[in-house]
Amino acid sequence: MTEKQRIERILETLDTYYEKEVICYLNHENPLQLLIATMLSAQCTDDRVNIVTQSLFKKYRTAEDFAKADLEELEQDVKSTGFYKNKAKNIKACATTLCEKYGGEVPQDIDALTHLAGVGRKTANVVRGNIFHIPSVVVDTHVKRISIRWGLTLATDPVPIEMELMKKLPKEHWIRYNTQVIAHGRAICTARAPKCLDCMFLTVCPHGLTKRLKDLPAPAQEALERGHMY
């Protein structure tokens, strides 16, 4: 099986088992809210961020509100998301720039977004893909881990992974690849103790085959040896 055929099989399987419709796991009603929520999601679960933003977005409704916020008060507002001092500082600085340069609106341009305080390519691509529907590859912890396991990249840094996936994946799959892989990473291909024998990608996953070959039932091992599985 060529790499192109394997990627096609992976994408077909993702579409079979996971929603084709792009799902954003961070609650938001507008671009600013998604930008802030994604900044808070660094080293934090989406569930925790959604709990925090439920009250946060009622207290701060505009970029100007965040820009004028008392820093120590904002720190307490986001404390439970972790790294709260740095996150609060970046949110306030980011909002200030939005007010000063963009009339309080979130820009679409990747360079403009990544020049905002606390905004890297992952955060920028989440906003671009989910809000502005611009084809974007989002490399979060799930995409990084699983793309490496699937052998789609040898890189370990998110930016090279993003660039490599952009070359290998059809553009129409870019944003939904992220949301589908998140779902797969949470359900089966977990960071610790992935459920390889229950995985629908086992036959196209070098990691799963290598890691779990000894656990396969005899018929599957025989099929593998005959070249019927990979």
From TrEMBL:
Its cofactor is [4Fe-4S] cluster. It is an enzyme of class 4 (lyase). This is Endonuclease III. The keyword Iron-sulfur applies. DNA repair enzyme that has both DNA N-glycosylase activity and AP-lyase activity. The DNA N-glycosylase activity releases various damaged pyrimidines from DNA by cleaving the N-glycosidic bond, leaving an AP (apurinic/apyrimidinic) site. The AP-lyase activity cleaves the phosphodiester bond 3' to the AP site by a beta-elimination, leaving a 3'-terminal unsaturated sugar and a product with a terminal 5'-phosphate. Keywords: 4Fe-4S, DNA damage, DNA repair, DNA-binding, Endonuclease, Glycosidase, Hydrolase, Iron, Iron-sulfur, Lyase, Metal-binding, Nuclease. It catalyses: 2'-deoxyribonucleotide-(2'-deoxyribose 5'-phosphate)-2'-deoxyribonucleotide-DNA = a 3'-end 2'-deoxyribonucleotide-(2,3-dehydro-2,3-deoxyribose 5'-phosphate)-DNA + a 5'-end 5'-phospho-2'-deoxyribonucleoside-DNA + H(+). The keyword RNA-binding does not apply. GO terms for molecular function: 4 iron, 4 sulfur cluster binding; class I DNA-(apurinic or apyrimidinic site) endonuclease activity; DNA binding; DNA N-glycosylase activity; metal ion binding. [4Fe-4S] cluster binds at residues 189, 196, 199, 205. InterPro entries: DNA_glycosylase, HhH-GPD_domain, HhH_base_excis_C, Nth. Residues 40-187 form the HhH-GPD domain. The gene is nth. CDD domains: ENDO3c. Binds 1 [4Fe-4S] cluster. Belongs to the Nth/MutY family. Its EC number is 4.2.99.18. One of its GO terms (biological process) is base-excision repair, AP site formation.
